[in-house]
Specification:
single chain; alpha/beta; Rossmann fold; UDP-galactose 4-epimerase, domain 1; 2 domains; seven-stranded parallel beta sheet; two-stranded parallel ribbon; globular
């Protein structure tokens, strides 16, 4: 069996490959990356490195050849480009005769009002239309998305948010990566959609968990979107980043990440990493 992971040099992809290396022989693993030079360390460990560019479908035809199980990790592109890139990958998988696809989608993608949901919904539709056995991994919020706020809190800065009382299912990327690895190497996941979410927390609840880890009080400032944008601009962040981060806060406030049902424990075969443990691990890594 040959398993291929796209975007394997990214933050999530690298963790998925690490988890797979703990489950299957390295000669059963391949990665598809835009820049093979960045995957030199994986190649040195015996992982087959292939060139695959989502903007060059012909490269994907070659990258996906002879693959038994494919994980398409969503790109970081803006919505319209992201959808086009993902559909290129799904179409290439069909042309290459790949018999199974897993895709990292987002929470409640088919019905969500989240601003980032449309390309995920379009990709899910493309996967279904391809007629290939699949698994849709609807990932909720990566705890690492809050890393800059966590670092600020460690340094004594206040935690600033415009997410209000909205809830999200944060979990560490290692948990999402392990879930993907389990699906790729396990049985019985064909034609399943999994909502993967940690226990739902408000931003205030997340801060309270971090206070327990740091053993200190963290000032929490709840602001509106306009004030939040102004603060980010004062920090010197570029406009596209400001728009993205503010949009995420808005979407959490609107409840788009508040998905009650979670299949995480079913897929992981264990409980989701407790939030304090996950936060403690992040703090240690950054120390």
């Amino acid at each position: 069996m040959k398993i291929l992971v796209t975007g394997a040099t990214g933050r999530l992809g690298s963790k998925v490959v690490k988890a797979l290396m703990e489950r299957v022989p390295v000669n059963e693993l391949a990665v598809s990356v835009r820049n093979p030079e960045k995957a030199a360390a994986l190649q040195a460990e015996g992982v087959e490195v292939r060139h695959g560019n989502f903007d060059q479908p012909e490269s994907l035809d070659i990258a996906f050849a002879g693959i038994d199980r494919l994980l398409i990790i969503s790109t970081d592109s803006e919505n319209e480009l992201k959808a086009r890139q993902h559909i290129n990958a799904v179409d290439a998988a069909k042309r290459a005769g790949v018999p199974y696809i897993a895709y990292t989608s987002m929470a409640n993608a088919a019905e969500s009002r989240n601003r980032l949901a449309p390309p995920h919904h379009k990709t899910e539709q493309a996967v279904l239309a391809a007629g290939i056995p699949y698994t849709l991994l609807r990932n909720n919020c990566y705890l690492e998305n809050e890393l800059s706020s966590i670092q600020g809190a460690v340094a004594g800065a206040p935690w600033i948010t415009s997410a209000g009382e909205g809830k999200a299912g944060w979990a560490p990327q290692e948990d999402f990566a392990e879930a993907a690895a389990n699906v790729l190497t396990g049985e019985g996941h064909e034609n399943k959609t999994y909502e993967l979410s940690g226990p739902l927390l408000t931003m205030q609840g997340l801060v309270q968990e971090l206070e327990e880890v740091l053993e200190k009080e963290i000032p929490l400032k709840k602001v509106d979107d306009e004030t939040f944008e102004h603060i980010l601009k004062e920090y010197g962040l570029p406009d596209p980043v400001i728009s993205l981060v503010t949009g995420i806060q808005h979407d959490i406030r609107q409840g788009t990440m508040e998905v009650e049902n979670s299949d995480f424990e079913k897929v992981l075969g264990r409980s989701v990493t407790p939030m304090r443990d996950a936060l403690n691990n992040l703090v240690k890594v950054q120390a």
